[in-house]
């Protein structure tokens, strides 16, 4: 089984039981990531993208839990593992990079000690060898004078440098998969470009796959091979990045792309999607996007669409239902939206 | 009244913050006072009814400049003039008080800019009351309803509290509050950076519609070049407190002159550049407390000549057609108009 | 049906006329909101809190209704019968056959009645001194945090110095000075107010420090800047904008401070410098009772002590619960 996907998420549901009912920040999401692939997960706040990333590495706090579905790492289910077993997977097989580098770094430990600890926990090497590798890792992520800076504390680095350290830490034990959750959101534009380039280069070199979670379409365009668009905890559309961004199928992706201002575009009026992302307590019936959708028709508020396979991806929208005979003119139903 | 001149203008605006440790610590640790120059010699004009955008990364001083222009912060040097009135001159208190109503601000964080304990109607009514714009409670109420509808909300939303609204709706409420005093000039400090893309476009469109309908003048502060491109007529690029380039929108995006502007434009993620790697970016923004000598950008600049760039701060050079650059390379003709 | 209306108004489904008039049923709206709130939910789920709350309510009720439900007025010598002296609890006096629930002291004073009357004094002194400390501390903290500069330094240094002494020592010091300033013939009448003053002055620091910290955070928020932009002065901004947003933690400190104030009052009275013997508080009762502890009349000291313990503990538990509920980080 050579082309078995590295990570396979199947119909994943994350539930939070609160006194006002059960909330589902992730509701039936499924996709695969191949070895060495960079998959982007894009969505606005409340889309459930970060929760999905946390669910994969078993970092969901109570009262949240994975209610159903499966997460397979190299064919092995990891969503039911004990906390101890999960800890061994995190760091060793799945590296993590978060938005705020300070949540990944212990402020009281020298960065070198943290990297050495990670290497020695997961790989059978001695102290001196681990330190040598840590210096090499820091050097590789572009920390100047790595041999000297290895004994610095996290607060002695700038935001961009700190994020480089986190990347070095995430890659230290040579994981197969890196989950990067908004790794550049807190950084300046010029630093963001450097970090994205670094993440891309290192993962390519080591053959690590990346799940890049972000809200920024520009980052998606420049960094990813494939992209999954999430809306209200569900997958709206998935496919090769150029396809999805230039020829989006789901009306939400269409609206999103048209409402994104560009440094290239002329000053024409921006498209706007009416309304805003629904709260978890008020997910609309049927297709969650239908109240904001310009192409919604009768079926959309009654039945929830499952992802329908397309040429190279899938789209969860009734407009693309091959079994619907009345779909020759998809734009007819326009005007049903509020 | 042949040429009324620019509506808003700053001349040599600067602000220095004292970021030293407390007196006792300095005495014991034998340290000098430490100063942070957040803005230095910032000069630009905004014609009435236009949008001027200040673009910069962290440490560029853009928020400091915004606060000085609305009068929340006193400049250390230079002047701010709005419609002929100097905002900080001694002895013109009456003029300055009258001016205050005409200048408003929209803030970055829609969650911190509304008092969580006040009803939305009271929040919007506060400027109306403070400036005595409506006589009685009934008229104020009507005005609040109008304002809410003007920004795309319902007059009934006035009885709700801020936490009952989404981020985009809160930003609409902030705009309604800013409009309540019937201002002519609004400073927008990163008005959409906390919002999602689809909501951002709603707010940006609303701001443009209001500008058209009410003849507003905007100063827009942003780090996002794509937003600036959509909103601004004129753009000023800041680096570590200094204005390195000002130009009309098209000129800046099509033919940036200053090396930092070029780098910034290259670094901005592009929707059409699949798999691109921006390789032109070198180094990081230096510490604003300890800025490089000469041209602040010289350690990261590919056109650094090693002498003048390191030793001498470049002056603002007027290139005509609304464009000005502060760069020795441009002045000496080393950096041409074409992009490298 | 009525609940429905409240919910609908909040969802904005009500008609224009309904919403535009000042809502006449805001009280009902508030009540609906409270029953729906996290505070009430957390209260319902915490048996310890319910017990503590019930005990506090019982004691407060007992204090308020004291003169109505007490079998005798323990401060009226005419109602005391020396023959009833040293009656043990839960049994009749061996000479007179009178029954006293919690027994009597050497004068034949009913302990139960004395506790009810003492509770009044203790609670009164506790509540009023916490209010005094709160008003003082919140004001100074707000001024300190919002104005900053030398006034902040001055207030906070005074607070720091005061914190280096045990508060009971401060209270005794202030009590001594204040008592010395009052003419001798007024001392007994003024004693309670001097007590309140000294406890209040010894407890304001907590309020001031907390409010100053919260004010420093709120001051930088953009809604305060927006208020400055419309030309509002510092005092109106402090009172109308900042104050309501820093009151959350004050409630918690106030509750825990109440327990401290009650204990401080009892300690002072126990040491003989607090409530005068003519208006005995729980502390005074305990002081009086200790004289009989070794002669076997244990009930004279036990029941006032138990009351004090239950009161202070329950109030403290309520404060702890309140702190947990209002602090989102601990949830």
UniProtKB/TrEMBL annotation, chain A:
Give the UniProt keywords, A-Z: ATP-binding, Cell membrane, Membrane, Nucleotide-binding, Transport
What is the membrane topology listed in the Swiss-Prot or TrEMBL record?
A: Peripheral membrane protein
Keyword Lyase on this protein? no
A Pfam cross-reference name: oligo_HPY
Q: Which Gene3D superfamilies match?
A: P-loop containing nucleotide triphosphate hydrolases
Main location per UniProt? membrane
Q: Which residues form the ABC transporter domain?
A: 7-257
Task: For this entry, list what GO says about its biological process.
Answer: peptide transport; transmembrane transport
- GO MF terms on file? ATP binding; ATP hydrolysis activity
**Protein localization:** Cell inner membrane
Alphabetical GO CC annotations of the entry are: plasma membrane
Q: Which CDD domains match?
A: ABC_NikE_OppD_transporters
What family does the database annotate? Belongs to the ABC transporter superfamily.
Under which name does UniProt file this protein? Answer: ABC transporter ATP-binding protein
Automatic annotation (TrEMBL), chain B:
GO biological process: what's one of them?
peptide transport
Mind telling me which Gene3D superfamilies this protein's record contains?
Answer: P-loop containing nucleotide triphosphate hydrolases
Where is this chain's protein located in or outside the cell? Cell inner membrane
Q: How does it sit in the membrane?
A: Peripheral membrane protein
Name assigned to this protein: ATP-binding cassette domain-containing protein
Q: Does the keyword Transmembrane helix apply?
A: no
**NCBIfam families recorded:** oligo_HPY
Originating organism:
Marivibrio halodurans
Keyword vocabulary terms for this entry: ATP-binding, Nucleotide-binding, Transport
Record's PROSITE patterns? ABC_TRANSPORTER_1 (PS00211), ABC_TRANSPORTER_2 (PS50893)
Automatic annotation (TrEMBL), chain C:
Q: How does it sit in the membrane?
A: Multi-pass membrane protein
Task: Recite the UniProt keywords alphabetically.
Answer: Cell membrane, Membrane, Transmembrane, Transmembrane helix, Transport
> Which residues are in the ABC transmembrane type-1 domain?
119-319
A GO cellular component annotation here is: plasma membrane
Its subcellular locations are: Cell membrane
Q: What is its main location?
A: membrane
Q: Please, one GO biological process term?
A: transmembrane transport
Q: Which residues cross the membrane?
A: 50-70, 121-147, 159-178, 242-264, 298-322
Indicate what this protein is called per its UniProt record: ABC transporter permease
């Amino acid at each position: 089984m050579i082309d078995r996907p590295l990570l396979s998420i199947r119909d994943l549901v994350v539930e939070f039981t609160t006194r006002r009912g059960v909330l589902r920040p992730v509701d039936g999401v499924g996709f695969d990531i191949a070895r060495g692939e960079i998959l982007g997960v894009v969505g606005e706040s409340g889309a459930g993208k970060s929760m999905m990333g946390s669910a994969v590495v078993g970092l969901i706090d109570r009262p949240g839990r994975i209610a159903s579905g499966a997460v397979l790492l190299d064919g092995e289910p990891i969503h039911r593992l004990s906390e101890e077993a999960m800890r061994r997977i995190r760091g060793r097989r799945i590296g993590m990079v978060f938005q705020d580098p300070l949540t990944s770094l212990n402020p009281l430990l020298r960065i070198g000690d943290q990297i050495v600890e990670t290497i020695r926990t997961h790989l059978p090497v001695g102290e001196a060898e681990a330190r040598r590798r840590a210096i090499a890792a820091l050097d590789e992520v572009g920390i100047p004078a790595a041999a000297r800076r290895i004994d610095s504390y996290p607060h002695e680095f700038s935001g961009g440098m700190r994020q480089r350290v986190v990347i070095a830490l995430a890659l230290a034990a040579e994981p197969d998969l890196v989950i990067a959750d908004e790794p550049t959101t807190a950084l300046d534009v010029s630093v963001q470009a450097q970090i994205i380039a670094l993440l891309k280069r290192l993962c390519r070199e080591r053959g690590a796959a990346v799940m890049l979670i972000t809200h920024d379409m520009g980052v998606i365009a420049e960094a990813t091979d494939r992209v999954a668009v999430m809306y209200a905890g569900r997958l709206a559309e998935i496919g090769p990045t150029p396809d999805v961004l230039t020829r989006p199928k789901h009306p939400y992706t269409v609206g999103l792309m048209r409402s994104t201002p560009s440094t290239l575009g002329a000053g024409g009026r921006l498209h706007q999607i009416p309304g805003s992302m629904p709260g978890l307590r008020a997910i609309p019936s049927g297709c969650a996007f239908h109240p904001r959708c310009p192409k919604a028709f009768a079926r959309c508020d009654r039945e929830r669409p499952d992802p329908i396979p397309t040429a190279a991806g899938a789209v969860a929208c009734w407009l693309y239902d091959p079994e619907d005979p009345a779909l020759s003119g998809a734009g007819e139903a326009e005007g049903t939206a509020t | 009244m042949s040429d009324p001149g620019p509506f808003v203008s700053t001349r040599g605006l600067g602000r220095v913050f004292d970021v030293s440790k407390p007196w006792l610590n300095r005495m014991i640790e034998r340290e000098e006072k430490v100063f942070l120059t957040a803005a230095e010699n910032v000069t630009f004009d905004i014609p009435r009814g236009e949008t001027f955008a200040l673009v910069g990364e962290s440490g560029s001083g853009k928020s400091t400049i915004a606060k000085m222009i609305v009068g929340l912060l006193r400049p250390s040097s230079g002047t701010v003039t709005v419609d002929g009135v100097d905002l900080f001159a001694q002895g013109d208190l009456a003029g300055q008080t009258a001016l205050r109503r005409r200048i408003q601000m929209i803030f970055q964080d829609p969650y911190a800019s509304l008092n969580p304990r006040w009803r939305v109607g009271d929040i919007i009514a506060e400027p109306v009351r403070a400036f005595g714009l409506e006589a009685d409670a009934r008229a104020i109420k009507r005005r609040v309803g109008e304002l809410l509808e003007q920004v795309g909300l319902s007059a009934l939303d006035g009885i709700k509290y801020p936490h009952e609204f989404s981020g985009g709706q809160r930003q609409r409420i902030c705009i309604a509050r800013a409009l309540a005093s019937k201002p002519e000039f609004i400073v927008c400090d990163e008005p959409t950076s906390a919002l999602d893309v689809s909501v951002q476009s709603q707010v940006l469109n609303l701001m443009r519609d209001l500008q058209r309908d009410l003849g507003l003048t905007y100063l827009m502060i942003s780090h996002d070049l794509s937003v600036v491109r959509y909103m601004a007529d004129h753009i000023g690029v800041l680096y570590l407190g200094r204005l390195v380039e000002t130009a009309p929108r098209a000129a800046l995006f099509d033919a940036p002159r200053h090396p930092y502007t070029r780098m910034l434009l290259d670094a901005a993620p592009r929707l059409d550049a699949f798999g691109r790697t921006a390789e032109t970016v070198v180094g990081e923004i230096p510490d604003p407390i300890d800025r490089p000598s000469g041209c602040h950008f010289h350690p990261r600049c590919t056109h650094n000549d090693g002498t003048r760039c390191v030793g001498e701060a470049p002056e603002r050079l007027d290139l005509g057609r609304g464009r000005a650059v502060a760069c020795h390379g441009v002045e000496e003709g080393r950096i041409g108009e074409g992009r490298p | 049906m009525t609940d429905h209306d409240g919910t609908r108004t909040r969802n904005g489904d009500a008609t224009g006329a309904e919403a535009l008039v000042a809502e006449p049923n805001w009280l009902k709206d508030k009540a609906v909101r409270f029953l729906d709130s996290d505070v009430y939910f957390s209260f319902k789920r915490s048996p310890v809190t319910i017990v503590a709350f019930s005990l506090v309510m019982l004691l407060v009720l007992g204090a308020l209704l004291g003169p109505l439900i007490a079998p005798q007025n323990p401060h009226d010598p005419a109602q005391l019968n020396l023959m009833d002296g040293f009656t043990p609890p839960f049994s009749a006096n061996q000479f007179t056959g009178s029954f006293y629930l919690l027994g009597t002291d050497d004068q034949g004073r009913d302990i139960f009645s004395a506790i009810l009357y003492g509770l009044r004094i203790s609670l009164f002194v506790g509540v009023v001194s916490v209010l005094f400390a709160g008003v003082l501390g919140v004001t100074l903290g707000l001024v300190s945090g919002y104005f900053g500069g030398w006034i902040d330094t001055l207030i906070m240094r005074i607070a720091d110095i005061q914190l280096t002494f045990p508060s009971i020592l401060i209270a005794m010091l202030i009590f001594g000075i204040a008592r010395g300033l009052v003419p001798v013939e007024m001392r007994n009448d003024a004693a309670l107010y001097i007590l309140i003053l000294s406890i209040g002055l010894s407890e304001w620091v907590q309020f001031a420090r907390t409010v100053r910290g919260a004010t420093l955070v709120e001051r930088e928020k953009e809604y305060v800047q927006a208020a400055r932009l419309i030309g509002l002065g510092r005092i109106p901004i402090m009172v109308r904008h900042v104050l309501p947003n820093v009151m959350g933690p004050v409630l918690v400190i106030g509750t825990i401070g109440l327990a401290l104030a009650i204990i401080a009052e009892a300690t002072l009275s126990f040491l003989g410098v607090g409530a005068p013997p003519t208006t005995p508080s729980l502390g005074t009762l305990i002081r009086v009772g200790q004289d009989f502890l070794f002669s076997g009349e244990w009930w004279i000291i036990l029941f006032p002590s138990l009351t004090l313990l239950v009161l202070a503990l329950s109030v403290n538990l309520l404060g702890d619960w309140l702190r947990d509920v209002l602090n989102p980080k601990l949830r």
